[in-house]
Design goal:
This protein starts with 5 loop residues before the first helix and ends in a 17-residue tail after the last helix. Helix 4 runs antiparallel to helix 5, helix 12 packs antiparallel against helix 13 and helix 13 packs antiparallel against helix 15. It is an all-alpha fold. The radius of gyration is 23 Å and the shape is globular. The protein has 19 helices and no strands. Helices cover 70% and strands 0% of the residues.
Length: 488
Amino acid sequence: MQFTSFNFAVFFPIVILGFYLLPKKFRQVWLLLASYYFYMGWNPGYALLILTSTIITYVCGLGIYAIPGQQFGKRKAVLILGILSNLGILIFFKYFYFLYDSIAAVASLFGTHMKAASLDIVLPVGISFYTFQALGYMIDVYRGDVKAEKNFIRYALFVSFFPQLVAGPIERSGHLLSQIEEITHRPSWNFDKVTRGLLMMLWGYFMKLVIADRAGVLVDNVFDTYYLFHGVALLLAMVFFALQLYCDFASYSAIAIGAAQILGIELCPNFAAPFLSASVSEFWRRWHISLSSWLRDYVYIPLGGSYCSKGRRYFNTLVTFLVSGIWHGASWHFVLWGALQGIFIIIGDILRPIKDKIVVKKNHSVQVIMTFVLFLISFTFFRAPSIHDGVYYLERMVCQFDPWSLLDGSVYTLGLDGKEMLVLFLAVMILFIVDLFYQKKQIYFDTIVKEQCLAIQYLIVLVLFMMILIFGAYGEGYDASEFIYFQF
């Protein structure tokens, strides 16, 4: 079920009514049933998969917690069993074809030809997200950061909580499980939380329907036939893809955070004005925050983190971002994209003394622009279907750059006419203002609105609502089937 679908417009009010009208002791069961119904909206069979993952990690968590701390080997064995079981499921459904094709390619170098894989495997929506969330819980129990959850209903809801189930944020057990436990005795209604939740959902729908889906028209048109276009069109598509990806993913997080807040649950923030970052390392502290922090705590730090030699630290950084690349997709161009992030951070660290003294000393704007350029270059491989396509895309953009096309009106034939471009420009200006507020005051959209007088609050809500209503991409012919990150 999609946040942008009519079904969700019916489903969510019913969930809210049931949550607040039913006796509090039934809230956890109600949300669990709602979450499974939400997830089964894509494919009923997905429910069996997430249930299997839930049972495995629940049992392993109890096993780890029950084994005395001094029996280190047994506890570690249970943890490894749980990790391998869940990763095995993830690898089969997400990486089977990638691994098979890679092995076949290597075998062909030695004269062995393998038959094409004949299995019909469909990637379950959100499997990477809930798998990482469940794995994080087991590791937290193993480390002693949280106690094992004995109530299966609560734990199952932790894994499957519908607002953040299929595209995050990836929640931590210590943060979400305690809130799930509290909802059975929390006050029935909190007006401030409900209004803040509605504001976040409004902001999310604005980013998705007015910016992301509009920018996506030009992006798809150019990227799908990039070999027909020249430099300016390709550069515009890169910039528009940056906007599309940011607003598409951040919009899902905003809607998820808002929906959860209406139900009295606080989810962790997932984006913090990332395009205003002054370095690639800062960018990854502000983009997909829940994944970045997960990789830091469960991959980077266990490898040795920063408390080691510089060479080892660079190795840890590169491995962590390779994991990030593989997590995002079962293809070599995602692996390269992840490697580029690590390489950029390593080079940035090596060149920091020169950069600070000569290139961009005390010039934050230049650093922001440089970081954004690196984003555009690396995320070209994120969007392109292969490494070869990504390389050829960048080569064609540079070698066939045609600045005169900015003056002949051809940019309005790429999928968006002049009016559509103007709407997108105005919407991006609103986005930029909101991100500047975060940059200056470290506050999100709901707080920005709440800090204004009542008349301004109503005006902001009215303007965004009317822009969604008038300029939103929906209606006949609109495909509400996917947010971009559903494929991961």
